[in-house]
Specification:
With 283 residues, the protein is an all-alpha fold. The protein folds into 2 domains: 1-146, Tetracycline Repressor, domain 2, CATH 1.10.357; 148-275, no CATH class. The protein has 13 helices and no strands.
Length: 283
């Protein structure tokens, strides 16, 4: 792809992880159907349409809009057509529950587009809404792949929480580096303390999840690796020079969470298949 063509894909690298981790989790942890594949392709195409849309609205600069508008229009048209074609086909083949569940990422995505058009996609609200939108893709995909509702919601919640934790620790690191007054430093310190308590709460929930009676909630234990890494970062308070190391550490923690989620989903499916044949109740 040429330089001009490469500009027609999203630049936010972290968003790719927020999109792909829920999708990969469902495909590895469930039993994907034709509907699952079509909906996933539609979700990816919708995600890719974000960049040409921002170019056309001038959010990548007036020069880029002037020079790349034709390519942006073509790219947007292609991505929209792919998203509509695969999305509609996937919905036609999907059960009724999946058709209703698709409304969650669609509504969140519409709000995210409005923020992006206004140039607020990198604000705290914008990044939070982006995490919610991308993680919510796991809900219709999970249901179409045969996962039960509890497990599906737990998967979406895990990737939402891990995305928010990772975003928060990075933003705090940058804010601490940019702080110039005692008041700004105090504000960053207060947020860092809140992040420590939130990380501890996520770890506590994750550790307790396998001991609960709701089998589908066992998946919540998979959030522990990311929460531990974020807790360590919040405690050590690295400078912005360590952002690359922080990024790779978060990637490694997310991979550990992915393995844990997929393994737990397989265990849950095996358990649900065996439990009805047992002569006594497990819980």
């Amino acid at each position: 792809m040429g330089t001009a063509q490469r500009k027609m894909v999203p630049r936010e690298h972290g968003a790719y992880a927020e999109l792909l981790f829920p999708i990969v989790t469902v495909f590895l942890g469930g039993s994907p159907t034709t509907s699952t594949w079509l909906l996933a392709i539609g979700a990816i195409a919708t995600f890719l349409a974000n960049e040409p849309l921002l170019v056309l609205f001038g959010q990548r600069g007036t020069r880029t809009k002037r020079e790349e508008s034709d390519r942006a229009k073509r790219a947007l048209l292609i991505f929209v057509l792919v998203a509509l074609g695969t999305g509609v086909a996937g919905l036609v083949l999907a059960p009724t529950a999946v058709q209703y569940a698709v409304g969650v990422p669609l509504v969140l995505g519409a709000g995210l587009v409005m923020l992006a058009i206004q140039g607020l996609e990198r604000s705290m609200v914008g990044e939070g809404l982006a995490a919610a939108t991308l993680s919510s893709i796991a809900i219709p995909l999970g249901l179409s792949a045969g996962l039960d509702l509890t497990s599906t919601l737990a998967v979406a919640l895990i990737w939402l929480v891990t995305s928010l934790l990772g975003t928060a620790v990075v933003r705090l690191t940058v804010a601490r580096t940019k702080a110039k007054t005692d008041e700004e430093l105090a504000r960053v310190q207060f947020k860092r303390t809140l992040l420590v308590f939130v990380s501890l709460a996520v770890i506590a929930v994750g550790v307790a999840a396998p001991y609960g009676s709701r089998v589908g909630l066992w998946v919540l234990a998979a959030a522990v690796p990311v929460a531990v890494v974020v807790l360590v970062m919040a405690a050590l308070q690295p400078t912005a020079r360590r952002l690359r190391l922080m990024g790779w550490s978060l990637v490694a923690a997310n991979l550990c969470s992915l393995i844990a989620v997929v393994t737990t989903l397989k265990i849950i499916q095996d358990f649900n298949a065996v439990e009805p044949t047992l002569p006594f109740p497990m819980f």
